[in-house]
Amino acid sequence: MNNVRMPGVLVVLAASVAIIGCGKKEEPKAAAPAPAPAAAAPAPAPKPEMVVKIGHVAPLTGPIAHLGKDNENGARLAVDDANAKKIEIDGKVIKFELLGEDDQADPKTGTVVAQKLVDAKVVGVVGHLNSGTTIPASAIYNQSGLPQISPSATNPKYTQQGFNTAFRVMANDIQQGSVIGTYAAKDMGAKKFAIIDDRTAYGQGLADEVEKAAKAAGATVVAREFTNDKATDFKAILTKIKAKNPDVIFLGGMDAVGGPMLKQIKELGIKAKFTTGDGGCSPELIKLAGAASEGVICSQAGLPPEKLPNGQKFLEDFTKKYGQIQIYSPYSYDAVMVLVDAMKRANSVDPVKYLPEVGKTAYDGVTGKIEFDEKGDIKNGAITVFEIKDGKLATLKSEGGTAASK
């Protein structure tokens, strides 16, 4: 009996095993581990920064403070533009900083602030505005080996001292005096000149050159008078000049003197044509003299703003930020950029190393091509003659100047 039942038990057991096997769930396979992310490349270390100080000097107080501020603003715009370029010199990103000083158009103050800039460790100086402050200050910069570029000092003596540190980016008074003196004698037909100067290095120096040019062109100087750069009453010397009946009165001086002088010329009924140099060839002269400025003939050592070879962007940027250009701000801008360009070429901000490069400059500035002769004067500096018409400076003629490369 037992033999009959055994196969059935085996079948049942086998079936049970099969059922249990079929009902077993398959374990899910573990997901393959995600590959470890690649290590990010380390960010390059930022290049070290270095602050480099450039000095600027002009009269920021007194009767010609408007001209001094114009110069300083031109230099500040150049510093801003240079910093925007993140210029690298000797492996460092350079941050330029402008240290502005006020020399009050006074020669003694000029030497004091010059030494102050030397002590502040500036690497170069733009300025001064006036020849009378530029010349004495230049000896201090030369002794310290600091490059000095004036945007507006036009007396020839500045670059005739034999200093390898002295440069200027506009024409000097020999060039300017020759142009305005010859223009008055030949183009205007003036035969008799009365010449007034303010006894400054600039005013007297320019007046001397105008006198030479007038005489060379066949004219006669019937009066030579002088005043000072702080004077406002000129009736005594103008009365003496009226008696000489000149065709032209030339003033070697600034607009702060020229403005009131023009009003007094009109009050005294003097018919002579009034001429002056760059120090009086400004919007401020028109503002000070009003209607008495109409018909004035004046010169500037440079090209008119609208004719600056690379000047349109400068004009737009400057007027947007600072307002109307007076006279020299484009040249102040270029003076800063010439220093920066020399540092880049020398790959150094050390005056000892980059000073030789300043003399080798061939820079396309907003005012034109800038190159220096062996004295530090700009080569082929431009001179422009203007006439004041309807309260504005209207260009009559330009001579010299070198266009920048395209």
What is this entry, summarized?
With 406 residues, the protein is an alpha/beta fold.
Structure description:
With 406 residues, the protein is of the alpha/beta class. The protein has two domains: 49-170 and 306-380, Response regulator (Rossmann fold); 174-301, Rossmann fold (3-Layer(aba) Sandwich). Helices cover 41% and strands 19% of the residues. The protein contains twelve helices and 15 strands. The chain has helices at 2-23, 65-84, 107-119, 131-144, 173-187, 201-216, 235-244, 255-267, 283-289, 312-322, 329-346, 351-359; strands at 49-58, 88-89, 92-102, 125-127, 148-150, 166-168, 192-197, 220-226, 248-252, 273-276, 297-300, 363-365, 368-370, 383-389, 392-399. Strands 8-7-9-10-11-14-15 form a seven-stranded mixed β-sheet, sandwiched between helices. It has a six-stranded mixed β-sheet with strand order 2-3-1-4-5-6, with helices on both faces. Helix 4 (131-144) links the parallel strand 4 (125-127) and strand 5 (148-150). Helix 8 runs parallel beside helix 9 (283-289). The longest helix is centred in the N-terminal third of the chain and has 22 residues, at 2-23. The chain is elongated and about 85 Å long. The N and C termini lie far apart (122 Å). The model is unreliable at 1-28 (pLDDT under 50).
